[in-house]
Amino acid sequence: MNYTIKNDEIADFNESEAFEFPKYTSQLINWANQNAQGTRANVVGQMSDLFPQFMEECDDITIENWKEWYTKKYPNAFATATDKIFAQVQNLKNAIPLIDREMVERWVEDLVILKTFNGLYVQKAILAFLAKKQGKSYRLATPDEESKGIDGYVGNTPYSVKSNTYKTMKRLSEVIDVKMVYYEKTKTGLKIEVDD
């Protein structure tokens, strides 16, 4: 049997109340945090290590005791993280008035036209480079092949070409026999890493 427990149910079972945030504010704070990196392990600690340690050391597992235990270990974490994130929120507040419809339209065009073209150009360049290295021909994937996670072929070998940031995103859900190529843009070109 399979079950699903929703986040609000988990909070209820754990007798912990979640904060309520006005519409869009949590998303903006989260976005600011991604840029500021305010809740990285070097600022607030590694939760996957700290919570088990708390569970071992504490006889009475309550949210109040967790907060007390945590703040003794990291007395400045909330202030440091808040300072980092709030500075980024201020940057967002300053940027939002600059955004008008024309800018949004330019952003959409940049995404759909320029970034798509340059992304495909990178794929083509990488496939051509690998083909030259291997003394084989290459081709870009068909739409059907793309839907299966293939970006192109070198000889008969399918390749998926992704930015190195893709590794941390864990988005490749397809189960296909494909060689992964990760690239990183540098000032002078591209660094690529090819799966064996």
Keywords:
196 residues, alpha+beta
- The helicity comes to 40-55%
Which stretches of 5+ consecutive residues score pLDDT under 50? Answer: none
Query: What's the shape?
Result: extended
Please report the number of helical segments.
9
Largest sheet: 5 strands, mixed
Specify Rg, calculated over alpha carbons. 23 Å
Distance between the termini: 39 Å
* Series of H and E elements: HHHHHHHEHEEHEE
Query: Structural class, from secondary structure content?
Result: alpha+beta
Total beta-strand segments:
5
Oligomer: single chain
Q: Largest beta sheet: what is the strand line-up?
A: 1-2-3-4-5
Give the averaged pLDDT, no decimals.
87
Report the β-strand fraction as a percent range.
Answer: 5-15%
Task: Walk me through the structure.
The protein is of the alpha+beta class and 196 residues long. The chain is built from nine helices and five strands. It has helices at residues 7-13, 25-36, 41-44, 47-57, 63-73, 77-95, 101-134, 143-146, 166-169, and strands at residues 138-140, 152-154, 157-163, 179-186, 189-194. Helix 2 crosses helix 6.
State the gist of this model:
The chain has 196 residues and is an alpha+beta fold.
Secondary structure layout:
Elements: H1 7-13, H2 25-36, H3 41-44, H4 47-57, H5 63-73, H6 77-95, H7 101-134, E1 138-140, H8 143-146, E2 152-154, E3 157-163, H9 166-169, E4 179-186, E5 189-194
Parallel strand pairs: 3-4
Antiparallel strand pairs: 1-2, 2-3, 4-5
